[in-house]
Amino acid sequence: MRSNRATVRAGVSLAATLPMLTGALVLGIPAAHAADHSGRGALAGTKPAWATAKADKGATANSAQVNARVYLAGRDAAGLAAYAKAVADPSSPMYGKYLNAKQAQARFGATKAQVAEVKSWLKSAGLKVTSVTPHYIAVSGDVAAAEKAFGTQLHDFAKGSKTYRAPAQTASVPQGLKGAVLTVTGLDNAPHKANHKDQLPPPDAVFKNAGPFSSYYGSNIASTLPSAYGQKIPYAVQGYTGEQLRAAYGAGTYTGKGVRIAITDAYASPTIAFDAANYAKKQGDAAWKTGQLSQVLPKNYTKTKECGAAGWYGEETLDVEAVHAVAPAANVTYVGAASCYDDDLLDSLSKIVDNHLADIVSNSWGDIEANQTPDLAAAYDQVFQFGAVEGIGFYFSSGDNGDEVANTGTKQVDTPANSAWVTAVGGTSLAVGKGDKYLWETGWGTEKATLSADGKSWTGFPGSYTSGAGGGTSKTVPQPYYQQGVVPKALATANNAEGNRVVPDIAAIADPNTGFLVGQTQSFPDGSQQYSEYRIGGTSLAAPVIAAVQALAQEARGGKAIGFANPTIYAKYGSKLYHDVVDQPTGKDLAVARVDYVNGYDAADGLSVSVRSLGKDSSLKAVKGYDDVTGVGSPANGYVDSYRRH
């Protein structure tokens, strides 16, 4: 399961609009504000790619209302990027010399004078300032005032079957403010929101797995079912436990003691404390201690129906229980966003940075790269850079739709996992054997075929593609320095001869068919609310698992923050510290048998029997060395301990 922040915007490549902005963002430096003929500083990337002349339906009414955010560049944007890079680079003399939140803001944040100047300009244009934060100034007003402030006309444009407002020209600011303003968001009103694309039905309605199951990989062979790939196959595991995952990824005796992990999602499960405690007890995990799980929540929630708020409860539950299962002594802070919209998700990330709520941040949400716009990319990257300066690392799931072709018709990666300033976490199918022994992993990619009516064959075997770990080459983000010399040239240059960012960086268990057991209060058909358990997966499982492994590694190095981990992750590439994941680890194709309730709850409406092939991720392949399904691989024995030497 992975929450998908669906910013329903440009359906075409943004590459043509991005060369200046993304070229700077690979080092975290905001784009230079090009001066136009009117003597103003252009804010590159503020006109979305879908706002074309062909789609133009004319000027937006002057009386229409605009809510926008003017993001502040701070007093030294280039210095922020340079510092963020230096403290994360093991070869730099500045490595690990982090600033605290107040120091970071004092050194790189906006000055009082800059804030006053920007506010004055916005008010003089007729806009009302509704809030001021260390990162942005929020304003509201009519279209006429927005046009005056940002030096552009706002028009209505056709986008698919709907019409949205957007700048007809790139927005700009007065030349005297070009150093103070990073970008502006909100001038277009296409919905910038998150939607679920779950591998299982939404957990607000009950879901249970039918048996038979394996207790570990291969423990229960489906001897009465047809063979697949020339051999009898095992039933899917009931759901791996924390003990099995800790063994697979080399946890040893580490527990994450003294480390703080934050989790971001939208909304908040009202039963999370009960569910997490109940699950830990039933699965033999360490009991939660008083104050070990805390929540930082907004005063009010918005757009609960539009965002499907209850659907986010399962996301939080999975993330919290997976982190605790792998790092049982780590402190967990859940930071819930007020809605599934980008603005609110950004606010949650900013809370973590501004108050240094954690050193490690797990994020199981995202969207396709084509829906990301440069203005939001700049805002996200600035938060990630401030985090790096403070020793905070952000981990993002890479997506659950493989190369996205089946989902969108276009081969692309997901965002914010495509940012050069986050660790993108890919997904695997995991086999843990008897005695919690790690057997192998494949890249996560599933093909499904169902049992024939006579029970003698799999209909249309191996079946159709259903889901898989997201990955591939960015079309907008240049290749970061830490990927150079590791990522194969053919991948890096797939969209640009100069080389672009490739996703993911590292990987862990994600396949729902070799997934994790989670416990949650759900709604049953009789209207009751009851705790129950089910197997789940997605890269929203991989992200908290890797975040928890990083907490173990931080404990191993005496509690000193790892911070932005990619330079260190890539420095370890090619060593025995990683499982080098390939799609045929045994030399043969692999599959499991799965039995499900047709109604998702009980056998009243019958059972559905299927074969799920492993290692079949769209056009993406897990191969020897770095690949765009699993990155450098998954953590192996010795990975956690290797951080003691840093």
UniProtKB/TrEMBL annotation:
Q: Which residues form the Peptidase S53 domain?
A: 239-646
Superkingdom classification of source = Bacteria
Kindly give the SUPFAM superfamilies that the UniProt entry links to this protein: Protease propeptides/inhibitors (SSF54897), Subtilisin-like (SSF52743)
Q: Which GO terms describe its molecular function?
A: hydrolase activity
Signal peptide (residue range): 1-34
The record's InterPro entries line, in alphabetical order, gives: Peptidase_S8/S53_dom, Peptidase_S8/S53_dom_sf, Peptidase_S8_Ser-AS, S53_propep, Sedolisin_dom, Tripeptidyl-peptidase_I
Keywords annotated in UniProt: Calcium, Hydrolase, Metal-binding, Protease, Serine protease, Signal, Zymogen
Tell me which SMART domains the record gives: Pro-kuma_activ
| Cofactor(s) the protein requires to work | Ca(2+)
The reply on keyword Nucleotide-binding is no
E.C. numbers: 3.4.-.-
Record protein name field: S53 family peptidase
What organism is this sequence from? Streptomyces carpinensis
